[in-house]
Amino acid sequence: MNPGPPLSYESLKTVLQYMDPNLRIRLAINCPSIRSVEKVVPLKIKNLELESRWIAIDDTRYTVGIYKKYPEGMCPPLAEKENGYGGLDTDLDQHGYEDRQTSDELRPGDVDLRRQHNRQRVYHEINEVEIKGKEKELSELQKRLDHVESFGPIITSEADDSCSKHSIERITSYFVVKHEISEEFSALYSRQPEFEPGRAKAYKELKNQVLELKATLQQWYARRDGLPVPFESYIVVTISNDETKEKKNVEFVKYEKSMFEAFRYLMQRIFENRRYPVAVRVLIPFSGIIRLTPGLRMRIEEMHFDKEVHRAIAELTPYIEESSYPLKCLKVYVFDSFEQSPEIFQETKLRSAEHLVLVGLGPIEWLPIYLNLDNHKVHTMVVDYYTGSMSVDDFMTIIRHWTSTGKEVGSSFSFGLQADEDELEMEVFHISVFKRIKTQFKESVSGHRYVKIPTVNETTLKVSVEESGDEDFQWNLVLLILPLKQ
């Protein structure tokens, strides 16, 4: 079949503009002939998540890690698990040990969003005393494993339905847990129908423990005696789909440059040399050192931060177009008053966001913060673990504030009511609020689950209880400014 002539330059630009961003990126990486065209067409992304060793573009994640390849049958479970998750998340030193100090180094273009305690970490080095203990532990485990194998071949089939799970666990524990093994007890257990399933489970647990200890000791001996490490190392790039959980390892390369150099290279291939800023609807940076490339420019609509919003905004400023502000929405997670002082709510870019969402838990005086916010819309899902949800008195203070400060039509404040409060408690809370409103605002008008209050600015403040659809905060108590006659 004749494929026909290639697309013209202008036609290709049009096609790329409407193509899925991940398909477009992979085509540009693998097809040099379209690379220059792809760079001049605006790239649009719905959600961009940034972490120290991965990025997620919409529902596709690109992860860089260190893959440890052990000889057949010698891979310890922890390394096997790490390999399955896209490899180790840090570099290795010449002896194969995790090089956390190098991983914590800041390089040009890095954005440091580490939490305070992670910026001052001290890493433990294994010592010879610990090694002696592990050698002794390995000897004991090997004896137990030999004893388990002495009863013959291991049968790995599923246990019969008639077998007692409790008895299987007891037999497994007999072989694995550190107490004395006796021929008498072994013979007694061997006559039970649960013996083989219990023995097979014990064999697997002991085998895994032996592999872990052997790997630890081999690596120690390699460093002490100048021997090769017991595994080969590769840098692996993994592309995975966050929705389908499908994974595809796209590239293995010999571990000859740092993992972070490899990640920076990936970022450059995707984001460098673009004619226009990358259009991002929602930007989500996570805590840690985010390895960005200096050529990245973004025009964003929303941001979600999980810690220290003032620090994140300052660190990300060089990469975000000033025309992005004011943001349509800013979502801030506040969980620890020691890292998130109330002063962050004076941050200009936070206060200018059209919609501010506060999610958190912490011993902070929330009422003064709520009264001082002037965002057009504010939604809170915040609980103080000393006092619980907001009190009726505090909520009435907010209502009085909203009736007297000239909030514009469409302004709203919504407060999430905890799901762990039963429905009766939530009913009592909002009924108490409504009763107070009727007492304090004689001109208020009530309806089903709402009250309307005239304000001093010839508008109406509607206070209502609404279902949220959120599992943790199933109901919202909502304040909304409406035109006077609505």
From TrEMBL:
Which residue ranges are recorded for the region named Disordered?
81-106
InterPro entries per the UniProt record, alphabetical: DUF3557 (IPR021942)
Q: What name goes with this protein?
A: F-box domain-containing protein
Q: Which UniProt keywords apply?
A: Coiled coil
Keyword flag Coiled coil: yes
| Coiled-coil residue spans | 124-151
Superkingdom of this protein's organism: Eukaryota
Skewed-composition ranges (Basic and acidic residues) = 92-106
